[in-house]
Amino acid sequence: MKRIFIAVVAVSLLAACKKVYVEVGTDTQAEDLVLSGNYKRNLVLTSGNTYLLDGLVYIDSGYTITIQPGTTIQGRKGTNSSLIIKRGAKILAEGTASQPIVFTSSAPEGQKRLGDWGGLIILGRAKNNGSFNGIPGVMEIEGGINNAAGDGLHGGNDDEDNSGIIKYVRLEFGGYPFQPDREINGLTCGSVGRGTTIDYVQVSYANDDAFEFFGGTVNAKHLISFRNLDDDFDTDNGYRGKIQFGIAIRDTAIADGSAGGASNGFESDNDGSGSAAQPFTAPVFSNMTIIGPLFTPTTIIASPFRRGAHIRRNSRLSLFNSIIMGWPSAGAGILIDGTTTEANAANGDLEVANTIIAGCPSPLKVNSGSTFNINTWFNDAAKGNSILAGNADAGLGSFNSYTGFNPAPAPGSPALSGAAFTSPKVSGMQIVNYRGAVGAVDTWWQGWTRFFNAL
What we know:
Blueprint: E1 19-24, E2 27-32, E3 34-39, E4 43-45, E5 50-59, E6 64-67, E7 72-75, E8 82-85, E9 90-94, E10 101-105, E11 120-123, E12 131-132, E13 135-136, E14 139-140, E15 153-154, E16 164-172, E17 187-190, E18 197-204, E19 211-214, E20 220-226, E21 233-236, E22 242-249, E23 266-268, E24 284-291, E25 307-312, E26 318-320, E27 323-325, E28 332-337, H1 339-346, E29 352-353, E30 356-358, E31 364-366, H2 374-378, E32 386-388, E33 396-398, E34 406-409
Parallel strand pairs: 3-5, 4-6, 5-7, 5-8, 6-9, 7-10, 8-11, 9-16, 10-16, 11-17, 16-18, 17-19, 18-20, 19-21, 20-22, 21-23, 22-24, 23-25, 24-26, 24-27, 25-28, 26-29, 27-30, 28-31, 30-32
Antiparallel strand pairs: 1-2, 12-13, 14-15, 33-34
């Protein structure tokens, strides 16, 4: 077993030349507390230290960054500072429930804001349906990450690719606005393979999407999106992973007000043009609790809020055993958008089953002029779906208190039962009786998380 200890601990972040010395096996290496540039060596970020990302920080192919439990990584405020795991590199960020790993802004507490820094970006070698400079299956990640060396490219042919472990990690105040509609997300995955572990991750106050998956097959569990700007779970370009146990809660005043902006719970496209490019975007979500901003029928909310799920552009997203609640009449609980997407729903490539929609004045929508009967489709008794008039009818503990948030179903809640795992699409997922992200006695969302007022 490798022996790791800190030999020098009194280090200031104010000077980039300051270092700690870490013994790994028999080799001693200098470890900067200010990280910048492209690392062509293994890094170990040690517990008890605070590290500063200064600009775009790349971990090169063939190398690993290991982040110990309890470590804090700050992005320099007002910059695009981000940690990028390139194709062929790995991140081993495995915190614990009592010692999560925290990525946050370098601003003092109380002065942190959305978009202070970039985010965490993982690039893998799994398949996607895009192209770059005429090369199919290779894509350029959004956010101004790519350069002449191709450090921001992702994609390949290995759906089992392993980019490492992200577990018990919080990402706060990221989402740097590189260009309109090309912001960095809280956690961005580009063609990440299913050999990668993503579990227990919270994204808070990001200036774009909380989680976005461009292609790839990585599975994930126990994800939380808290008071972010744009979409909570965005899937594109052939993403085919499975995600179970996810929570989203919106801030009534924080939404994407950019030109054409719309804030959704789920947003999913096959690709930007809605083509039939393969592999198809076909994620499978189960046990999700997606809480929109319309806490009561009279709650004042930001105008760009739209839909609990916007499934469009030939996506084949499927949703099981979940709760969507509190989305305004300007949008919908679920919008199935476009003839190709409707066809996917009609033939079963796109499924919604054993799911509750509550407190949405417009529970279901299609585009104007469509002949697809979404109400008949959704309310088919065999699907086990239901529509409830108010948020309170879902019977959650506390869905509209940011600091006292409790998504667990209370006694008598219809979410305590009604889940089903008979579809082949949910094969391999954990079988539970309840719908939504947590059961009556679940505590997975507590302890390592942070639910707080920052603005």
